[in-house]
Structure formats: structure tokens, C-alpha cells
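Notebook B, p. 112. Complex prediction, attempt 2.
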Amino acid sequence: MTINIIIDTDPGIDDAVALMLALKSPEINVVGITTVAGNVPVDRATENVLKILRYLGITDIPVYQGAYRPIYGELTDTSDVHGSDGLGDVGLEAPKDYKISDKHAVEFLLRASKEYKDLIVVTIGPLTNIALAILLDKKFSERIKHFVSMCGVYGLTKYGVGNITSRAEFNVYTDPIAAKIYFSTPAIKYLIGLDVTQKPSAMLTAKDRVKMRNYGGIGKLIFNMLRRFRGSVPLHDPLTIAYLLDKEVLKFRELYVDVEVSGIYTFGETMADLRQDIPDWLREGFKAYVAYDIDGKKYKEILFTRLIGRRD
Ligand SMILES: [Ca+2]
């Protein structure tokens, strides 16, 4: 069965890997790609999507540019992580003749939610576009089969520490109001946070990356994009796609979650109500499925098999 998805993204090296994983997986039909300001300004994010499409020789997937800034929050310079171009400065070129749509990403999200009965929205950047779509159309989120989002950190494992501040994950920190609007909808949400993406068994070791390089092609590209890192590197965003390909990769718990939208040390912190034995009406926040464990070996097998054509 074909899995119809929209990917909302701010590439970003791990976004690039997520896009390639989706686009190389025949079970997945990428209905469209929407961009958002996050790791890089939105026009750069759009350009980076086009670079990936060009690299893969894809010419027919519609690309829609989205929000140029967070609703509330500021863009952070991530060039120390993602390079000055957002893709590790490996020299990928944008296609000269790829036309992006003149429609806004949010318009596309609303339209596609009506056209497809079984649409899954995958978010791997700040949630600004999603929040805007929710605010424009009360029924939008209910028309989506479900969302899968790389966002937040919920205190579910010892690996779950912030990656932008000690408490906050980047996508939520960049636009916490947008995250709150998203969390507060009754839509079905699968949230994949740093609790699982930073588990050591799920991270790409230096040895994994050398193996990738030696296989050439996409493997070499990933190696080069990540060449400034030493030791193990988490690949957060592709986990959303890996989960769609194989549900065994992640374990989820239904929890109530919320996000801190003010505070000096807690700005952008996500929290899950982990109290035991209290009635739901006393709980704080909104229902979501939150990932609490990952089969890291399986995750890496998916990356290697799909992207490089080798098991490991
Ligand atoms: Ca991202």
C-alpha cells in the first residue's frame, strides 16, 4: 500500500538524509515538500530541497515555500552543525530550471488535506507552517490521517537532553508557540524526540560513516556532509521516515505533553506528564504518542539498506 506523505522541512543535513530516505523508498509517495525557516532561512531551505532533488535526478515533486520566520522565537545560526549552506558545504548545486510552486506551503497543506483521504504529514523542522494551517482551517488537522514529528525531548530516557539549550530541542525551541498550537489539536500525533534519536545505538558511529563513504554514491555524500563531526552523530529527522517504513523501529506511549513558551532556562522545553495513578482530567497538556524506545540496529539497517543498498 502506498503511503502518501508531505514532508515539512528546513534542510539541514539530517533533513537531507530524511528526504533521500523517503524518496528512495518505493512504498512512500511524497505528495509534496514544504519548507520552513529553521536550520536555515526559508529561501535557503527551499534551495536545499531542490539541491537534493537534483542530486537524486527527481524533477516532478512539487515544492512549496512556507513561513519565513517563526510565530514567536528567533532563528538560531546552526552553521556550526550544518555548515554555512545548511548541507555541510559539500558543493551540491541547485537545478537551474526547477520551478517551485507560486502557492504558499500552508495553502498546499490545506488543499492536500482535502484531496487525500489518507495523508500523513511528516514534520522535521519548526512547526510554524503546521500551526498556520491549523489556525486557518479548524478541520485541517482532523483531515490528516496522522502526523509524525521530530520534535521535543520528554524525559523518557537518560539520553533525552536538549540540543539547543539544556532543556530544549531545536525544532520546538525555534517556534514554541507553533509547537503549542500543534500539540493542542486533537489530531493523532507521533512525536519522536531526542529521548530516542540520541540513544547511542541509533547514532552513526565514525566507523559507520567510513563504511558509507566506501560504498560511494549517497553513502559518500552523507559521509562528506558529516565530515566535520567526530565520534557518533545522531540522525534525528530520518527516523520519522524509518518509522513509516518499519513500525518496529520505535515504541510509543500515549502521554500528555505540553511546551514551555516563556522562561529563561525553560523556553521551548517540552514536558510529558509522567505522574502515575492520577485521573486524566488532572493531567497537564495534550494527548500524543511519544517515542520512548528505539531499535537502533534496525534503524541503521534501514538507512544502509535503503540509501546504500547494503545491510550495514
Ligand atoms: Ca530539520
